[in-house]
Amino acid sequence: MNGVIVGAALVRDGKLLAQQRGWPADHAGQWELPGGRVEAGESDAFALARECSEELDVVIEVGARVGEDVPLPGGKVLRIYAASLVSPGGEPRAVEHRAVRWLGPDDLDDVDWLPADRVLLPDLRALLS
Ligand SMILES: Nc1nc2c([nH]c(=O)n2[C@H]2C[C@H](O)[C@@H](COP(=O)(O)OP(=O)(O)OP(=O)(O)O)O2)c(=O)[nH]1
User: How many angstroms does the Cα of residue 7 sit away from the middle of ligand 1?
Assistant: First the structure.
């Protein structure tokens, strides 16, 4: 099984999009980047675009890697890519999550990130400067 979880660092107007999980119970209420598992036969970029379509109902363009792979429980890794909205007018909406929020540099520490995302905060912050 492919052990890569891809995440999108979606930036618009100097703000990063974060989404709040509603499930499972032990992660409910915590915040993460849009994304998910790379399925067999998918490239990272394809999987990321698919997840953003499913989760946010937006079309994205995938850019460069952000930070290093972060190990996750079960031998998986979290791999982040910079991303932008293809149609800036289209507003992401929380299709599968509890909420979405655009975070400026001063807001990044305000939300309860999943542990792996917390590791990446310096790299994410650098994207906003
Ligand atoms: N999408 C996403 N998952 C993250 C992040 N940080 C982090 O630790 N994870 C973990 C939570 C989950 O254990 C795993 C991804 O789960 P998921 O539920 O988003 O993946 P998926 O949509 O492919 O769901 P599934 O088919 O594996 O059930 O990675 C993040 O920033 N974004």
Answer: 8
Prediction ipTM score: 0.92
37 lines ligand 1 (CB under 6 A): yes
Query: Are the C-beta atoms of residues 72 and 5 closer than 8 Å to each other?
Result: yes
The CA R_g of the chain, rounded to the nearest whole Å, is: 13
Query: Which pTM was predicted?
Result: 0.95
- CA-proximal residue: ligand 1, atom 26 (nearest): 37
Distance, C-alpha 3 to centroid of its chain = 16
CA 36 – CA 44 distance, rounded (Å): 10
42-70 confidence digits (pLDDT tens)? 999 999 999 999 999 999 999 999 999 99
- How confident is the model over 78-100, as pLDDT tens digits? 999 999 999 766 899 999 999 99
User: What is the per-residue DSSP string for 32-58?
Assistant: E-SEEE--TT--HHHHHHHHHHHHH--
